[in-house]
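Pipeline run #58 for the internal structure catalog. This entry was flagged by the ingest filter as a single-chain record with no existing model, so it goes straight to prediction. Upstream metadata was stripped on purpose; only the residue string is passed forward. Reviewer on rotation: M.T. Logging verbosity set to normal.
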Amino acid sequence: MNILLLSMPDSFEHMPAVAIRMPNGALVSLAGNVDPHHHVAVADLILCQNSVRETLTRLVEQHKPDVVGMSIMTFQRRTASRIADLIKTLKPDTKIVAGGYDPSLAFEDYAALPFDFIVRGEGEVTFRELLRALEKKSALHFISGLSHRENGRWIHNTDRAVHRLEDDEIRLPDRKSRVLQGYTLLGRQVDVIETSRGCTFDCSFCSIIEMRGRNFHTYSFDRVLADIRDSRDHGAQTIFLVDDNITLDVRRFEALCHAIIEAGLHKLDYFVQGMTSAIANHGETLAPLMQKAGFRYVFLGIENILESDLTFLNASSKNIERDKGKKVGNATMKAIDYLHKNNMFVVGGLIVGSPDDTVESIEANLSFAKKYIDWPYIQHPTPYPRTPMTREFREQGLITNERLEEYDGTTAVVRTKHLSSDDVEYMRWKSERGMKTRHIMPVIKHDPWFVLRNGRKMMKHTYRGSTWRNMLGIEDDRKAFTRYKEIRRQEREYL
């Protein structure tokens, strides 16, 4: 059969296409785990945001897909539905499969959407078994993790158990199946790999534990190194380790750094997500090792610098510094210090806009970000399907926006007890622009030609909505913010 796998064009506001275009790792993993006689094409539509309809029309004509699989997040649901409608128009007999966090956690909401199947949870084995059943025209009822239509109603089969990655059931991704090009992180070709799946913490905003429970499974280092080599051989100069929580097992992470060095793969740039507590509590030995292994950017899940907000986010335990087993305070500053001393940059993950937030509490977090982090990744609490946070916001009546296409993390869709959602977003927007501009000098040093070619475009993206009158203080910032909001609305219309 001919298989076309699509990721959506909708992107996070923090990721301007000129500077950051990440591949969807789940799609090439699906491609690597179907039976080899199928023809599979993978298309990340973030690479063609300005020509989605034309690109899809061409891909359907070229590949004549029998099955289309779509990876969908909540803010991409509307676009995914429109794409499914387009595909059904272009090739009506195509079977369309929805997968990813949103269909897995809100499968009931897909009943009226133009999809034939839903793959819930991890998709590699479920999707492979679905293709086999379609090919043989056999029963679907015994495929765990699958939802399917039957006689006008949806049947939801039993859940599939979480994969134990240690048993090599999941094969390597198939990167040669990609049919679009242009993945980049600040001018260098980027790829994604995973060394583990899962997390044992229970942050109230997290969709991961809602989808797969609290667990942690790891791939062998032989497989991880083979995956890195394959990424490099396909042109990657930067590798983003997309593990849910790679620093959950610090000793394993240290061993991975050693393995990368010993394999001669430390000349690549690495980008990783980490917990502040793990880096603060082990940073004296871990941070120099990370630097030696090639790690350049570390996304720190700081979440918030105020204990009251960390309590709401249920994220206190992963931000605790310990001394001889005793809790001695917040780990954030120590983690940042270790990373900076070892020439790594901190991408600061912060969340502002919790129910009790005031102007003062939000300003405290924004001031901290200005002073200590290198690149801001500041988001607003967003009521994603089935998370504990969503239940709390609904119970308190704080959700102000039900337009899911705006659930992108940087559009405030909930208010606090003291501030409107618009005020919360305005504070982040106004403060964050300068923080992003400040990081231009390290980027110039690392990738000067990229900045020379694209610096103007990056600045234009960062300050869209602003004018010279606004920047000179002649015009109120709120007018620029209003223009920015309208630009964001237009950007979400991909087809």
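catalog note: The chain has two domains: 2-156, 183-462.
catalog note: The mean pLDDT is 93.
status: ready for reviewer M.T.
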